[in-house]
Design goal:
By secondary structure, the protein is α+β, with helices and mostly antiparallel strands. The protein folds into 2 domains: 180 residues, no CATH class; 150 residues, Reverse transcriptase/Diguanylate cyclase domain (Alpha-Beta Plaits). Helices cover 69% and strands 8% of the residues. It has a 5-stranded mixed beta sheet, sandwiched between helices. The longest helix has 41 residues. The two termini are 41 Å apart. The structure holds guanosine-5'-triphosphate (GTP). It is an enzyme of class 2 (transferase). GO terms for molecular function: diguanylate cyclase activity. This is diguanylate cyclase.
């Protein structure tokens, strides 16, 4: 014997399988935890961003050190190393990071290696103050922007390590004064590098903000119809309930249910059923006001918060909507012959909470079903 048909929303939701809106379902929709490939993809973007910055920073940083080398001459091996670091290392670091298993991690090591070079150049310049300060400041800025305090501290250690190697290999004598050429050679680094870093950080935060906006939208919408999903819509109902209480606003709640929707699925299949749900959602959007909050409550049930409206106006709006559905029934196949039953309730200060409002609308809608469907029942007139 078939089980009796549920007669109220609470019965309906109890009748649904427990996993109807379950976490697993959401996980499937948004994907499980990222695969290693996805992680590597993120690392690649990071490597590319740092590559561009390194090419700019080291190619102009070259002149700071070169000017100090001209002031206090050094041998060809140091010049060769400087050219390597300024113009070859950025490409080597890029290749090494991209060909590693986890580019993100390798790139962080490359950043620490940069600070090692920095410490070494400070010793090679005999502690020339201006270029040393510029190099340290730029490297620290890089590390803090790329990896926060932790990478900054690692970078400091890297600089100390590089300086120790310099002290071991080079004949260091402290000569802090920088001549005018050296100071001038440091200016491009001071002026241009912060611009490049600032631009790169700004672009990244803009992208992040866009992503978070996209995610927010996805998490508030029903996947099939694009209407507000049940969870988000219910949070808006709570807000509306409070606003009605505090500001003595008059708003109405409209609950709509497609009649005999199961027959559509059974006769024409679920794809047609989905099409009907989408078309009906479109009809709702077209026939309601732009600030009405339309949600899909589940299955073939829809809910609308009609803000700041008298019951009479809301009734006209709802009746027009039902009429529109009827017209589609005879004129085309958009709704495959479906009709709707609706319950309308205006806010009343004696309501205990938002769910009391919802329960009354639910009750009104089921009265409409009992009256033979394809009609509107208004409660609390
Ligand atoms: N195609 C499709 N069907 C759905 C979806 N969600 C729920 N349903 C179906 O909607 C049907 C709802 O059936 P019932 O609750 O019996 O309601 P009904 O047939 O409209 O009957 P009344 O409400 O009494 O007029 C069930 O067959 C569900 O499987 C969906 O996203 N897509």
């Amino acid at each position: 014997m078939p089980s009796p048909k549920p007669r109220s929303r609470s019965e309906k939701s109890r009748a649904r399988p427990a996993s109807f809106f379950s976490f697993k379902r959401a996980q499937r929709a948004f994907g499980d935890s990222p695969s290693p490939e996805e992680l590597i993809g993120k690392g690649v973007r990071f490597v590319k961003r740092i590559y561009a910055l390194r090419v700019i920073g080291l190619s102009i940083g070259f002149f700071c050190v070169a000017a100090a080398f001209l002031q206090n001459p050094v041998g060809w091996p140091l010049w060769a190393l400087l050219i390597f670091h300024g113009y070859i290392w950025p490409h080597v670091a890029y290749r090494v990071a991209l060909s590693s298993k986890i580019p993100y991690r390798t790139e962080r090591m490359n950043l620490v290696a940069d600070t090692g070079f920095g410490g070494f150049w400070i010793i090679a310049m005999h502690g020339s103050l201006v270029p040393s300060a510029v190099i340290l400041a730029m490297l620290s800025m890089d590390n803090i922007a790329a990896g926060g305090t932790r990478l900054f501290l690692r970078g400091l250690l890297g600089s100390v390590f590089g300086a120790l190697i310099g002290l071991l290999l080079l004949d260091f004598r402290f000569a802090p004064e920088a001549d005018l050429y050296t100071v001038v050679a440091c200016l491009p680094m001071l002026a241009l590098y912060p611009l490049a870093l600032g631009k790169s950080t700004y672009d990244m935060s803009k992208k992040l903000a866009e992503r978070s906006r996209e995610f927010e939208t996805v998490s508030q919408r029903d996947g099939l119809t694009g209407l507000l999903n049940r969870r988000y819509w219910e949070s808006l109902l709570i807000e509306e309930f409070d606003a009605c209480h505090e500001k003595k606003r008059s708003s109405c709640l409209l609950l709509l249910d497609i009649d005999h929707f199961k027959n559509i699925n059974d006769t024409h299949g679920h794809l047609v059923g989905d099409e009907v749900l989408k078309n009906f959602s479109q009809l709702l959007k077209e026939n309601l006001r732009t600030d009405d909050l339309i949600g899909r409550y589940g299955g073939e049930e829809f809910v609308v918060i009609l803000q700041d409206i008298s019951l009479r106006e809301a009734e006209t709006l709802a009746a027009r909507l039902i009429e529109q559905v009827r017209q589609h029934r005879s004129s085309d196949n958009m709704l495959w012959g479906c009709t709707i039953s609706a319950g309308l309730v205006s806010f009343h200060s004696d309501m205990e909470a938002h769910y009391s409002w919802l329960q009354r609308a639910d009750h009104a809608m089921y009265q409409a079903k009992d009256r033979g469907r394809d009609c509107l029942v208004v409660e609390g007139r």
